[in-house]
Amino acid sequence: MNRREFIKNSIIAAGGALFLGKTMEKGLLAAGSDDDKKKIAKLPRRKFNKITLPLLGMGCMRLPVKDGKPDIKAFEKMTEYAMLHGLNHFDTAWPYHGGNSETALAEVLSSFKRESYTISNKLTTWLINSKDDIKRYFETQLKKCRTKYFDLYLVHSLMGPSIETYRKQKIFEELLKYKEQGLIKNLGFSFHDRAEVLKDIVGEHPWDFCLLQINYLDWSLLKAREMYEIATKARLPVLVMEPLKGGALCSLVPAAEKKLKENFPDESQATFGLKWVAGRQNVSMMLSGMSNFEQLKENVDMFCNYKPLGKKGDTTAEEIVRIIQSSGEIPCTACRYCSDCPRGINIPAVFMAYNTYKKTGSRHKFVREAWDNLDEAERPDRCINCGLCMRRCPQKLEIPELLSMILKELGK
């Protein structure tokens, strides 16, 4: 039996639980006894409506890439390790990886029984202009994911104009029909607007859950705490996206990194950020976009031995935030929602170059490389201040103003 066949046969549907069949994984021989089952640690699970979910889910927005598309072999290796240790939830969406995330996920999961994992997918609001669009995208997504139903389905990225679309096209009501047919098990939404807007949306319909951006930097910066409390008061389960703010909390400025090591010497920047989010009791699951096997293994292994950070973790996080805010870095998550710039500016890459500059100093070779790798057509001097990027930015960044500032500092 090869590695993939073993893992496929080792996973059964019993509330998402796993058991071992016969394996040579890391030299371990198991015959299915209770003692053998305990030898491979599993992620903790939290209650989510009528099921449970692993505390960590795999976001499929930042998969390993080869030749411009998701690297299937690398993704398979990550998925096998994840499933073996109880990480059996996968989150995707139509726009991820240029439309290739859903098909890559379907291919990788094709070796596993459908009831052994859960999937969340999303209806991307900015693509919807009619009820016919809702039907077309949803039914196409079922085919792309090779599934008869979605365990979780979301109205994607409610913010600004997309909220108007969601209401005008009666998206909730249309998706509710699919839920009544059993094609959607849990119906929710992801959100990137102001707290007072969230309060309205939560009260508009009988949602099953919401997906919020929560991390220790945004807890105060983007009022994530207030949003978390709105959902909690409404008894709405919270799923979390961007727990590491698109990797920004894995590359702290030196002073912040030093502070973390002083208080939590055994934690990496990633494990600290994830454990901090796990400390919020109404978080059913957090999604993390892991781009390689090493990232996934570190996160899975950490959660298999999860211990809360406690009050010291909250205090340390507050201290780190103060250091970050004083460094002048731009809190960009590289989500690339701004990448349809009509002038072709590579906004995430420009911000990366600037943040590298703030971390290392203008003479560091990596700053020069990051800047020089930008084509002339991708640089910030082409900005015409149209504002399209700001309307799509989940972080509410004043992008044209920031591009102008960067041009003054790095343009020379």
Which secondary structure elements does this structure contain, and how are they paired or packed?
Elements lengths: L2 H8 L23 H4 L7 E4 L2 E4 L1 E4 L5 E2 L2 E2 L1 H13 L4 E3 L9 H9 L8 E7 L6 H14 L5 E9 L2 H8 L2 H10 L3 E8 L3 H10 L4 E5 L4 H4 L2 H10 L4 E4 L12 H10 L5 H10 L4 E6 L4 H12 L6 H17 L19 H14 L4 H8 L15 H5 L6 H12 L2
Parallel strand pairs: 3-6, 3-12, 6-7, 7-8, 8-9, 9-10, 10-11, 11-12
Antiparallel strand pairs: 1-2, 4-5
Helix pairs in contact: 3-4, 3-13, 8-10, 11-14, 12-13, 15-16, 15-18
Explain what you see.
- This protein has 412 residues and is α/β, with parallel strands linked by helices.
- It has two domains: 41-323, TIM Barrel; 347-410, no CATH class.
- It is 43% helix and 14% strand.
- The chain has helices spanning 3-10, 34-37, 72-84, 101-109, 131-144, 161-168, 171-180, 195-204, 218-221, 224-233, 254-263, 269-278, 293-304, 311-327, 347-360, 365-372, 388-392, 399-410; strands at residues 45-48, 51-54, 56-59, 65-66, 69-70, 89-91, 118-124, 150-158, 184-191, 209-213, 238-241, 283-288.
- The strands form three sheets. An eight-stranded parallel β-barrel has the order 3-6-7-8-9-10-11-12, surrounded by six helices. A two-stranded antiparallel sheet has the order 1-2. Strands 4-5 form a two-stranded antiparallel sheet.
- The longest helix has 17 residues, at 311-327.
- The chain is globular.
- Mean pLDDT is 86; it is low at 6-33.
